[in-house]
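Give me the fold.
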Amino acid sequence: MRILLTNDDGFYAPGLRALREQLLPLGDVTIVAPATEQSAMGHSVTLLTPLLVNQIFEDVNGTKQFLGWAVEGRPADCVKLALLELLPDPPDVIVSGMNAGSNAGINVLYSGTVAAAIEGAFYRHTAIACSLEYDGKIHDYKKAAGYCVQVIRQLLATKPPAGSLFNVNIPVLERGPIKGVRVVPQNVTPYLEKFDRRVNPRGRVYFWTSAEFHCPDPHPDTDVTALAEQYITVTPLKFDLTDYSGLKALAQSALAVDVEG
């Protein structure tokens, strides 16, 4: 099996390295990931500057082993380049992660990790985003990556159609034992967020986005709630944003313009 591995935390992020090690028994793993952290970049792509790439190797018992490419760009850039330019053969699956921090609820819209998986699904590849909930402490990335790969194996065993997209979240392992896996919808309640207002030495006001935010209405049976209850969450996603019920209602409203000016 050919596996493309990417992320938004950067090529040298511990979550990506841990996930690579756990994926190796499944097949050949090639990394194409941002050279630097690109968290919360969403689905942005690079248009006005060149995308510089570097081949990355590591020493294994005195022999250089090719790991992949570090890209001076966004997560979506990495997947585009991998599929269109860098990989000699198309991957059988695209895995994005393992992100340092959950991508549940409305965070899915901001996540570079999920965006990279979406980009793969655009190109009709099965794509899986993997994230580990973060509580400010050092985490057991190896163990969490092992859970991710168990879920990935089972998802692939279902033989999902081309372009299938999944979002997987692992709860904080130090909080307690994993209770199981739940397939749940995304919670779309807006998070409560804060900005830290400050003034610089020249009197200019500036703001830091606070790291403290939470979902005020978790809703039962959604990814946010299940994750807090110590379940691994799996959410199938779609990138088609069309509101089909609204489309049908609007089509019946006879919208028109005066073409005669």
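Helices lie at 14-23, 75-86, 112-122, 141-157, 223-228, 244-251.
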